[in-house]
Amino acid sequence: xxxxxxxxxxxxxxxxxxxxxxxxxxxxxxxxxxxxxxxxxxxxxxxxxxxxxxxxxxxxxxxxxxxxxxxxxxxxxxxxxxxxxxxxxxxxxxxxxxxxxxxxxxxxxxxxxxxxxxxxxxxxxxxxxxxxxxxxxxxxxxxxxxxxxxxxxxxxxxxxxxxxxxxxxxxxxxxxxxxxxxxxxxxxxxxxxxxxxxxxxxxxxxxxxxxxxxxxxxxxxxxxxxxxxxxxxxxxxxxxxxxxxxxxxxxxxxxxxxxxxxxxxxxxxxxxxxxxxxxxxxxxxxxxxxxxxxxxxxxxxxxxxxxxxxxxxxxxxxxxxxxxxxxxxxxxxxxxxxxxxxxxxxxxxxxxxxxxxxxxxxxxxxxxxxxxxxxxxxxxxxxxxxxxxxxxxxxxxxxxxxxxxxxxxxxxxxxxxxxxxxxxxxxxxxxxxxxxxxxxxxxxxxxxxxxxxxxxxxxxxxxxxxxxxxxxxxxxxxxxxxxxxxxxxxxxxxxxxxxxxxxxxxxxxx
Length: 510
Prior knowledge:
This protein is mainly alpha-helical.
């Protein structure tokens, strides 16, 4: 990329405020330093164990204690109604909340087994079709999700479940508005996703890592669904059961996010090394890089993964939605002011919680916040943040994950309606979360490749050029267009401010 392109980089999104561009000389020097010493800076991070230190140990302890505590509670609640009602005499603690005997754990556990099976099949199907049909599947997810949400909303209204009907209707509306807001970005998004798929498909090791973590997740889901089935079958009132399921769902979401981000770290480290060393079979590649990256991910860097997993997903989702709405508000100044405030707040949080931190964690073993700040500063100093703001690959992958979860929840919900109509919402909602986590574990391999490609492109564009010339040229062209667009927007803003200042001075003079 040329110095002119770098010198016109700005730090906010296409429709937002602008900050002053970094000096071209400084950017060129920084890029030169990274270009000449990329491999030297990065390879030792995965090659030498002596340089690794335990990071974010507090959050590692919190996560492990949470796993032990939740595991014990799930076991107790599952056993309490296994083959005998109130086996452990827990109902004596629910005085005043009792309504009726709902059933036994084994009545509902098969329903969760269906959810786990469907989620696993969908995840494995995604991995199998990754090389040949991934692009088609992602386009399908983008366009079908709105329709699927709308259909479920109608079915909920038909079943007189008005809360869920409204919830899914609102979700369908928001999804439709978001897709409309990003429709012009879909071609570039698909380009990035195709490049990421090409990368991971050439690395069978990362597929095996994803499959192994799906098995780990299934093991935990077996215990989780055992306890959740005990909760659904319990004699506690509907309010108490819902609160317990919400707590367990939050726990499951965190656990699933931790496992997904562990895969993210392992795959990112592998992809980054392949790009840095010029190929999987390069002589300079460390021995057993996947196992080395996996060992770091589950030991010294695991605390950082646990910490980042608490907040990253929610902040990313909120950022995507605000970006989409912000670009379509128009001239409503009051609404634009409110959304701008939220946007700036979320942008501040993104500096400390972004998915690109996991690449820095994989390569350098830094703490999560340190990694997130370094990654974001790297993007802003090189102008690559303009591409990231334009790219919607993370949102597209999330749509695929949501679709997988909805299909899983629908399958479990239909069977539940046939056998136990009163508990459709409880089983369907929790089954949907199970499906999302299992499909997300398959999707994360592509997302990891996307983040690694952006980090490498910011560190040294020649790494991408050496890997795929055509892909590099298309990225370079898009970056140039986005930087020109931002420069034009900045000039418009400055011109408007100059005119306003001139008008104000004339008024005061009069």
